[in-house]
Specification:
alpha/beta; binds pyridoxal-5'-phosphate; 7-stranded mixed β-sheet; 3-stranded antiparallel β-sheet; 14 helices
């Protein structure tokens, strides 16, 4: 089976497993795990922020980050297909008391005209005030689309004028960085808080981080524990993340090339494939998924007529070529 369902299906390489086995560990709830501390410092530095916090999932990093800038009864604006709106099972409302309103863009992009219409200043005890704007780079359900740096900078200006925060869901910010050559610190500069994942394209088995100010991270540390996600000798997992940062960022370019190859075989416009995700319209997506599985390729249906393919560390060039041939035959 060639598994193109998600970049979360990767298994740690032997070298990553060796790094995990050798990790120095301590009790991270006591702040005594040196490998976790290393990872948190390293990631904060990459984005030129003060601090970072290791979390088991990207969803939790998003919850902690959003709640650090949006209080209960306030709202965050985001694109309608954003992961925080569509795929975190209402966590931001259920846990943090945050409401959301959304703008729509077929490629998940920033649309300042729509955001300007949605933006709600604090008018006293009548309306929900906007406290933050959240963006996703790359945008998962918009087919791994990259948000251009100029648009992010324009949004920063918009948010500063209105004194609201920006949250960047950077589960795949590494893919945006490799696809565009934009330094990670430039992405860090446009956001007050970020969530970044090690367990997608970077191939670690577990792990994400919230990134922000020291104050926001100290508060998030309390909330992480409150939500039951204080972890102990978790340096074994942080070591996988450090290994991934050292060895698995630049190779994302291969995943992008493989996605372009798959797009071509599916007749998808390559202009719509920025990184490692290909979204194709098929009149009956679930039946197409079943036919592909019978032919040896796993893909996902992300809507009744939408199929998604994701390339990753465990898909070689030969796998991508074989999958392209099989899918073209369907
Ligand atoms: C854009 C985006 N943000 C956040 C997440 C959440 O990550 P996790 O599955 O680790 O909770 C995902 C997961 O695919 C994602 O695609």
């Amino acid at each position: 089976m060639i598994d193109l369902r998600s970049d979360t299906v990767t298994r740690p390489t032997q070298a990553m497993r060796a790094a995990m086995a050798d990790a120095e560990v301590g009790d991270d709830v006591y702040g005594e795990d040196p490998t976790v501390r290393d990872l948190e410092g390293r990631v904060a530095g990459l984005f030129a922020h003060e601090a970072a916090l290791f979390t088991p999932t990207g969803s939790l990093a998003n919850v902690l980050a959003v709640r650090s800038v949006v209080g209960p009864g306030q709202e965050v604006l985001c694109e309608s297909a954003a992961h925080i709106a569509r795929a975190e099972l209402g966590a931001h409302g259920a846990i943090s008391g945050v409401t959301m309103r959304t703008w729509h863009h077929p490629r998940g992009q920033i649309d300042l005209a729509q955001i300007g219409t949605l933006f709600a200043p604090d008018l006293g005890p009548f309306f929900v005030p906007t406290a933050a704007i959240a963006v996703e780079n790359t945008h998962n359900f918009a087919g791994g689309a990259v948000l251009p740096l100029d648009d992010l900078r324009a949004l920063r200006g918009f948010a500063d004028e209105r004194e609201v925060a920006i949250h960047l869901d950077g589960a795949r910010i590494w893919n945006a960085h490799v696809a565009t050559g934009t330094p990670l610190a430039e992405y860090g500069a446009v956001a007050d808080v970020l969530a970044v994942c090690l367990s997608k394209g970077l191939g670690a088995p577990v792990g994400s981080l919230m990134v922000g100010t020291s104050e926001a991270i100290e508060e998030a540390r309390v909330w992480r524990k409150r939500l039951g996600a204080g972890m102990r000798q978790v340096g074994v997992l942080a070591a996988a993340g450090l290994y991934a940062l050292d060895h698995h960022i630049e190779r994302l370019a291969d995943d992008h090339a493989h996605a372009a190859l798959l797009a071509e075989s599916l007749g998808v416009d390559p202009a719509g494939v920025d990184t490692n995700i290909v979204v194709a319209e098929r009149s009956d997506a679930p039946a197409y998924v079943a036919r592909a599985r019978d032919a040896g390729v796993l893909v996902s249906a992300v809507g009744p007529t939408t199929v998604r393919l994701v390339t990753h560390l465990d898909v070689t060039r030969a796998d991508a070529e074989a999958a392209a041939r099989i899918l073209a035959g369907l």
